[in-house]
Amino acid sequence: MRSLFCSLMIALSLVSCDTNVIMSEYRTLGKGVWNKDEVLEFTFNEMDTVQKYDVFINVRNDNTFPYSNLFIIAALTSPEGEVVKDTLEYTMAMPDGTWLGKGSGSIKENKLWYKENIVFPSPGVYTIEVSHAMRKNGTVSGIVGLEGITDVGIEITKSNP
Q: Of 4, 25, 119, 143, which has the maximum CB count within 10 A?
């Protein structure tokens, strides 16, 4: 009986763990509104300097998000202070308005590609800063309070060989 219990616990622990996930962290946005000046910062270190990684920006939205796409500015800062900044566009809904992403109910979670097969060549602390870059068509100034984004996160996984 004891060996059956131990075998069951080992099997459950192996199934429940995703050994490829190195880091997963979220920031919750107050009242589901992402202010245009709110830069979300994620730091990490102790990365294998030879291993290739995939980096995702995870976004949770609810039904109040009024757009079918999302523009994000992401900046990756190395331990030496080198900054690589990207403006990214992600599709959040199909043309008929059906939300993309996973989840039931009013919250959908989207796992959005940021960097693929990236190597962090130097030991030390890396920082990823994420902000939204949404604006209405024909306007220069950004949307001050982007409604419907409830959480934003970063996930780093080992790349598959």
A: 143
CA distance 119 to 89: 23
DSSP string, the chain: -HHHHHHHHHHHHHHH--TTEEEEEEEEPGGGEEETT--EEEEE----SS-EEEEEEEEEE-TT---SEEEEEEEEE-TT--EEEEEEEEE-B-TTSPBPSB-STT-EEEEEEEEEEEE--S-S-EEEEEEE----TT-SSPPSEEETEEEEEEEEEEPP-
Q: Which residue has the tokens 């959040």?
A: 92
Q: Tens of pLDDT along 81-122?
A: 999 999 999 999 999 999 999 998 889 999 999 999 999 999
pTM of the full structure:
0.84
Confidence band, pLDDT 50/70/90 cuts, at residue 9: very low
